[in-house]
């Protein structure tokens, strides 16, 4: 924007009072500072900025979705106790509830997985019939649902766990389990929470996956 100031003779910088009055009576429509503060110019700048922001809002989710699809290393948390019940189709244990806490991490490219937590099994009358801890032993699969940021991701993780009862000391291996988070674009009918073994009906669930960066 400095170029116009050096195109004329020196008197461009040293105008007489009369020239100054003429300048005020006849506004210049050319470049320079006047053009920079022209209202139409401001509107054009605002329009350009608005269009740029709109483009970012449209394109950013695309890149985040692609990043989710390419990610391989994840972690997850069960946000508070998650519960699942034995459905009515198994009348002998119907109404029994599994209460689980825990966290873990996994890599879809290597199938490495680790983590664990605690569990309780409570009857419909409120009696605790078992409790203890579990460790995650096998990665079976993961379906990502995407999400708005690396720290907020949805998906469905399928795995197995080994549970150890603190009441009896018994260890039960190879228990199938799922962890589902509905952030992103889950399929119709998906339910947030956990399932494990015969406790196939998720009741109260709040989970979250994260892309490890």
What does this structure look like?
By secondary structure, this protein is of the alpha+beta class. The protein folds into two domains: 3-69, no CATH class; 73-211. 22% of the residues lie in helices and 43% in strands. Strands 1, 2, 3, 4, 5, 6, 7, 8, 9 and 10 form a ten-stranded antiparallel beta sheet that branches. The chain is globular, with a radius of gyration of 32 Å. It starts with 16 loop residues before the first helix and ends with a strand. Residues 1-37 and 55-65 have low confidence and may be disordered.
Rg on CA atoms, Å: 32 Å
Class based on secondary structure composition and strand pairing: alpha+beta
> Which regions have little confidence, pLDDT < 50, spanning 5+ residues?
1-37, 55-65
Mass-distribution shape = globular
Q: Write down the domain tally.
A: 2
Helices, by number, come to 3
- The end-to-end distance, rounded to whole angstroms, is 44 Å
The H-and-E topology, N to C, reads as HHHEEEEEEEEEE
Q: Tell me the total number of β-strands.
A: 10
Mean pLDDT: 79
Sheet having the most strands: 10 strands, antiparallel
Strand content: 35-45%
- Roughly how much helix do the residues carry, as a percent range? 10-25%
What is shown here, in short?
The protein has 213 residues and is of the alpha+beta class.
Which descriptors would you attach to this protein?
globular, 213 residues, 22% helix, alpha+beta
Write the layout of secondary structure elements.
Blueprint: H1 17-25, H2 32-36, H3 39-70, E1 73-78, E2 82-85, E3 97-107, E4 113-122, E5 128-149, E6 152-165, E7 171-181, E8 193-196, E9 201-204, E10 207-211
Antiparallel strand pairs: 1-3, 1-10, 2-3, 2-9, 3-4, 4-5, 5-6, 6-7, 7-8
